[in-house]
């Protein structure tokens, strides 16, 4: 009795979700990533790498899988493999941008999303994640002692960063447009019920710029003799974190160098030690079930439940302590990686809700058809499918750190030992300060993993 409507529903869903696995349809990405997160916290990088299945380029999560595998390969210090994954992600992003420009139809994806959830849409890296792809690719090249290629990546990161700054006005226009197409929803009620996420984002600029990229860029620009560019980036980072003592000192030092003033130290007898510290893992998105009041064409108000992504908590920053000679240095924050992710979500939430409302209408039409042609059984099948497939799109780059910190000091040339104090444990590091150079110590810690790499700039 219900064979025909059931087949119609199934064929429509499968035709639009050909590249969407059942796990993606009925489970959130944040839930699926738990196995990878456990492996990363246990410092089992091989298991973390194997937990991410890299499918074909047509898979909806292909770009996301590439950057996850690229970052995990970098954590495993397999820089060649990381470089290859990031290059594939960059090429895929360029390909998607070209498709958008020539307006290749994605009607199959749209149908799949309309009858399932937003996970049926291909995940294209948002601009703030594209900035970080180029930033971490620069680190891969630094590890290969290819500073010229690293500088190319930093310049690419700045190009994407400029696009992100320009996008803000476009996002405002998009939200205004979606508000007009409100399907009878009470947007005031939505704004009251949906979390503000202001505690995650912080200042507006924190939602647009990443201080980790700016500081790394400044270090590389200075090493290349581009003092003006280095100072611009340091000043931008200082605007994000005006109370950061290291950034303030660096801005003062470079400003004096730019104007030909007296150098703050003799580079023949002293060198600069800069520690950039990546701590923990970024907080994943949560799934929030929200009951929305929607008015029908006859003016009746009905409540519908929709699944939306959100950020409900963040992991607090724990300052790094560095014992060096007779002094103790404290890390000072330069980036919260969740800030940009939450800001991007906030910019797009009206569009997400608009798509959800369109999905509610489509699913309700299918349910009515199945109830009409299949009776109670058809109605139950449609209702169960609608309930099971109502999952929020919680996809984002989850192998990123939670925060980044900086420690900076001027030290006499020669060998020395320092101790990183991380979560109550000491991690000794031997370094050599060289004349006329900056020693960059890049430290990463997460759970049981603590690693460090030394670069000379």
Structure characterization notes:
The structure is a single chain. This protein has a 5-stranded mixed β-sheet. Helix 13 runs antiparallel to helix 14 and helix 14 runs antiparallel to helix 15. It contains 16 helices and 11 strands. It is an alpha+beta fold. The protein has one domain: Serine Threonine Protein Phosphatase 5, Tetratricopeptide repeat (Alpha Horseshoe). It is elongated, with a radius of gyration of 25 Å. Strand 2 and strand 3 form a beta hairpin. InterPro entries: TPR-like_helical_dom_sf. Keywords: Lipoprotein, Signal. This is Putative lipoprotein.
What's the CATH architecture name? Alpha Horseshoe
Q: What is the CATH topology assignment?
A: Serine Threonine Protein Phosphatase 5, Tetratricopeptide repeat
Give the CA-based shape: elongated
Number of helical segments with 4 or more residues? 16
Query: Helicity, in percent?
Result: 40-55%
User: What can be said about the biggest beta sheet?
Assistant: 5 strands, mixed
Average residue pLDDT: 82
User: Uncertain segments of ≥5 residues (pLDDT<50)?
Assistant: 12-20, 107-115, 172-181
CATH superfamily: Tetratricopeptide repeat domain
Percentage of residues in DSSP E strands: 15-25%
CATH class: Mainly Alpha
Protein name: Putative lipoprotein
Keywords: Lipoprotein, Signal
Organism: Pseudoalteromonas tunicata D2
Signal peptide: 1-20
């Amino acid at each position: 009795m219900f064979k025909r409507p059931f087949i119609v529903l199934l064929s429509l869903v499968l035709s639009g979700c050909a590249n969407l696995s059942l796990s993606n349809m009925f489970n959130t990405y944040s839930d699926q990533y738990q196995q990878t997160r456990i492996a990363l916290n246990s410092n089992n990088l091989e298991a973390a790498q194997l937990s991410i299945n890299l499918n074909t380029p047509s898979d909806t999560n292909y770009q996301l899988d590439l950057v996850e595998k690229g970052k995990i390969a970098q954590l495993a210090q397999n820089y060649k493999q990381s470089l290859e994954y990031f290059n594939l992600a960059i090429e895929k992003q360029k390909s998607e941008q070209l498709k958008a420009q020539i307006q290749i139809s994605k009607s199959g994806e749209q149908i799949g999303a309309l009858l399932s959830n937003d996970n049926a849409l291909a995940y294209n890296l948002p601009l703030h994640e594209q900035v970080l792809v180029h930033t971490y690719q620069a680190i891969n090249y630094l590890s290969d002692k290819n500073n010229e290629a690293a500088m190319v990546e930093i310049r690419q990161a700045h190009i994407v960063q400029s696009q992100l700054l320009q996008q803000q006005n476009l996002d405002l226009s998009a939200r205004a447009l979606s508000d007009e197409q409100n399907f009878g929803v009470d947007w005031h009620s939505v704004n009251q019920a949906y979390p503000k996420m202001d505690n995650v984002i912080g200042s507006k600029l924190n939602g647009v710029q990443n201080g980790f990229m700016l500081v790394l860029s400044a270090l590389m620009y200075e090493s290349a003799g581009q003092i003006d560019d280095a100072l611009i980036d340091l000043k931008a980072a200082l605007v994000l974190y005006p109370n950061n003592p290291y950034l303030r000192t660096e801005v003062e030092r470079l400003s004096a160098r730019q104007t030909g003033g007296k150098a703050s130290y003799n580079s023949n007898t002293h060198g600069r030690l800069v520690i950039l510290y990546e701590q923990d893992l970024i907080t994943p998105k949560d799934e929030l079930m929200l009951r929305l009041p929607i008015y029908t064409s006859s003016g009746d108000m009905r409540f519908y439940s929709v699944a939306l992504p959100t950020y409900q908590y963040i992991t607090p920053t724990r300052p790094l302590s560095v014992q060096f000679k007779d002094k103790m240095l404290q890390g000072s924050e330069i980036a919260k990686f969740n800030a940009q992710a939450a800001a991007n979500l906030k910019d797009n939430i009206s569009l997400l809700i608009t798509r959800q409302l369109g999905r509610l209408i489509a699913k309700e039409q299918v349910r009515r058809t199945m109830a009409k042609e299949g009776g109670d059984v058809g109605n139950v099948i449609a209702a169960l499918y609608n309930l099971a497939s109502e999952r929020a799109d919680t996809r984002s780059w989850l192998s990123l750190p939670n925060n980044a910190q900086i420690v900076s000091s001027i030290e006499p040339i020669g060998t020395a030992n320092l101790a990183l104090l991380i979560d109550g444990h000491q991690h000794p590091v031997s370094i050599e300060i060289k004349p006329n150079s900056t020693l960059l110590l890049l430290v990463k810690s997460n759970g049981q993993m603590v690693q460090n790499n030394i670069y000379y700039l």
